[in-house]
Amino acid sequence: MVGTNTTPVLSVNGVTKTIGRRNIVDGLTFDIHHGEIVGLLGPNGAGKTTTIRMIVGLIEMSRGDVLVQGHSIKGDFVKAIRHIGGIIENPEFYPYMSGYDNLRQYQRMSDGVSITRIMEIVKLVGLQDAIHKKVRAYSLGMRQRLGIAQALLHNPSILILDEPTNGLDPAGIREMRDYLKRIAREEGIAILVSSHLLSEMELMCSRVVVIQEGKLVTERAIGQAGENEELSTVTLRVNDLELAEQTASRLDGLTRIGSIPDEGALTVRLKEEDIPDLISELCNARVRIYRVEEHKSSLEDEFLKWTGGNRIA
To answer: Domain named ABC transporter: which ranges (predicted)?
Structure first.
């Protein structure tokens, strides 16, 4: 969900990273707004991690700039970085200390973080019952949530996470997804997350930015059709397949994709607004319809199409 504030929290403007004669990242541009979760996707070597490292100032940009709440990472790093919370590698803590004491250590290095804020964030990430236990007893998922709590303490405007679900089991991945969506919703924080789990990104993100060989391939809201994808593909299960095919063939703009006689299934492609007309014509022809199923491309299908079949990593 894009927040009501239309000013971007993060603007990546023509960012380029050149090593030798090769552009690892090449003129990359995109924005992120309040309250939305944006996935950064790309195949092996696409430049995802390099992009994230430039955003947070860990490596220098060759050209371009990154603005965080209007502050330049290149020209005003201290003010820009104050608005960023992030986990770029696995979060590291003192294992012999409790989660609470680890957060208190971070509090001492940050201005304006109160005990009240610590407990608010502990509740937000669901660590109330474990916060006073030693971190050595934490599961990987609990450590990840503690890392997110630490990254949120100073009230950042954007949270940047590089592979936050690495090593988590399915329950931990679902838990992480739920907490990130809750953080975006309740705190209004923008979240940029890279991951190789396409199915998870599809459930978590409101939008994806896809890069390949350092360049922007596409920027797309999840489930949004492309310019050339105005037609819907539907399968109808009917009692009289032959009559259904004859009736459907009389409709303008409808294309028969195929049929499965044994199942009484007819698959066609047509404009979404024409689906009610098709159903009405079939009913008028006394064709009984048991099911109408629309086929939607998964994020994995779309990713493979965008990148020409390259595998993600």
So the answer is: 10-238
Q: Which residues pair with 19 in a beta bridge?
A: 22
What is the distance of C-alpha 240 from the center of its chain?
Answer: 43
On whether both 216 and 235 belong to a single domain, the answer is: no
Residue 313, in any domain of the structure: no
Q: Which tokens go with 149?
A: 């709590």
**What pLDDT, on a 0 to 100 scale, did the predictor assign at position 309?**
62
Mean pLDDT over 156-176 rounds to 85
Q: Tell whether 168 and 289 lie within a shared domain.
A: no
Tokens matching residue 20: 């030798």
Q: Strands across the sheet with 10-19, in order?
A: 22-32, 10-19, 63-68, 71-72
Domain interval for residue 291: 231-295
Same domain, 101 and 211: yes
pTM check: above 0.90: no
Q: Which residues contact 35 (CB under 8 A, 6 or more apart)?
A: 1, 2, 3, 184, 185, 188, 189, 190
Nearest to residue 98, comparing CAs of 142, 130, 145, 144?
130
| C-beta of residue 52 within 8 angstroms of C-beta of residue 160 | yes
Residue 267 lies in a domain: yes
User: Contact at 8 Å (CB) between 187 and 153?
Assistant: no
Query: Which 3 state secondary structure label does DSSP give 169?
Result: coil
CATH number (domain holding residue 111): 3.40.50.300
